[in-house]
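Chain A, query sequence.
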Amino acid sequence: MPWTLEQMCRRAAAELKDGYYVNLGIGMPTEVANYIPEGVSVTLQSENGMLGMGPFPSENEVDPDLINAGKQTISELPESIYFDSAESFAMIRGGHIDMSILGALQVSGAGDLANWMIPGKMVKGMGGAMDLVAGVKRVVVLMEHNAKDGSAKLVKSCSLPLTGKGVVDLVITDLGVFEIGATGMRLVEKAPDISVDEIRKRTEAPFTN
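Chain A, predicted structure.
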């Protein structure tokens, strides 16, 4: 069985280490905040100017002025601090964020990332993704293994506009976990009852296991 969204987020949360400063991308990655392992203390950063994001609030705790970069309402912690976006991006560009967990449209076997636009569709711009992949120490991608039309998202070469070249360290999909290094992509873990042959059929990029 492929992993569920919750299982994927739990697996991504297992990559977090005590003391890390972490940025969670818009969409599925924001859910990782709900599965941080017990005993692990991480500080979540939002590029719109917050360090120390809390979990999503319950309905009676919602503060409409307190949002993350994806405009979702969030909660604050006793240690939360606020600042302008210039200071936020100085943290990112200065290499002070340990890990970013992002979504993706495509990832190549060499670690190239395309996650900001599909040609022909209206978009507002790349946003902070290009800064995150360039300035963060470790980049983890969390995504479905295949697109809605069944096409591969782990590809030999990205056909969509790149966010960054050779920037992805780890990919977690509903079928497995892939490390990307100097020698290419390697399957290091797979979902239960999913065969390596099936993963190969649904993956364009070559990988070892």
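Helices lie at 5-13, 85-93, 129-135, 196-201. The chain has one domain: 5-208.
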